[in-house]
Amino acid sequence: MARIAIVGVGAIGSVIAALLQSAQQHELILCTRRPLPRLDVETPEGNIHINYTNLTVPSEVEPVDWVIVATKTYDAPGAGVWMEHLCRQGAPVAVIQNGVEHRERFASYVPAERIVPVIIDCPAERRTPERVHQRGPVELFIQADMLGRSLATIFHGSRAQVTLTVDFLSAAWRKLCINSAGSISALLGKPAGVFHDEAIGRATLEVVRECAAVGRAAGAILDEDLPQKVLAQYRNFPVDSVNSLLADRLAGRPMETDARIGAIVRFGGQHCVPTPCNSLLLSLLEAI
Q1: Are residues 130 and 39 in the same domain?
Q2: pLDDT tier, 25 (very low <50, low <70, confident <90, very high otherwise)
């Protein structure tokens, strides 16, 4: 049993809470801006009612064994406020976020050697602040080092598929390639059914090709047919499926454009890889 704090209880944070509750008798502390009196997660296996302590004031928390950050990438400063109190006894911090800059975002709050970057693949939507719908299975990609293996153990007994990888860089860029396609859906304001359009399909291939080229320049190992695989994945989604970028736009929330598209453009500039499609998407999304 571990004492685990989750900072950021949106769709992904709620799914993580459900997994940890089903895994073992962990003590869960949910750190939120506003009180959260109840939380239910509708999983493919059935509804899970989460048992937890809810805290809204960082100074009131006690040290924990693990901190899991599942905020949006642009909320890193807000999440960082919790670290001073939760990590007083040296707790490691698992950062489950989009993009490829997990450690960089939290380097000013937590020593780099205590940060565990995590990639998650899970279709989930927050229907209300107190209810989340998990549409499909959960897969976690974690660096196969000592802290990564320790993190994997707290999910033993859950339905999460945990992959310990010696090449986290490639896993992160592979996920960013998938996310890059989602920016088209967010820009158009339409769910996954839009990817069945042939012109949209061609544009998607170009966007993902650029991302993959930048990832390879940064050191990632990515399949040559990854763009085709990404497009096929989006076309296999339910036509009403909404990715998180689009969900944020529809809800009037800020979007993770910097982490999901801006990173491609930034790294492309650093490695002299042209990114015209992603640069255009970034400009248009930031203008919304």
Answers
A1: yes
A2: confident
Q: In what order do the strands lie in the sheet with 40-43?
A: 46-49, 40-43, 131-134, 124-128
Q: Mean pLDDT for the chain?
A: 96
Regarding whether 138 and 202 lie in a shared domain, the answer is no
Which residues form the domain of 8?
A: 3-166
Query: Which residue among the candidates 72, 175, 190, 229 is catalytic per the annotation?
Result: 175
CA separation, residue 91 to residues 58, 73, 166, 179, 237 (Å): 15, 21, 23, 30, 38
Do 119 and 238 lie in a common domain? no
Where among 141, 166, 191 does a domain terminate?
166
Structural domains counted in the chain: 2
Answer yes or no: is pLDDT of 265 > 90. Answer: yes
The rounded percent of the chain whose pLDDT value lies above 90 is 96
Is pTM beyond 0.70? Reply is yes
Active site residue 175: yes
Those residues whose C-beta lies under 8 Å from the C-beta of residue 165, and which sit 6 or more positions away, are 141, 142, 143, 144, 171
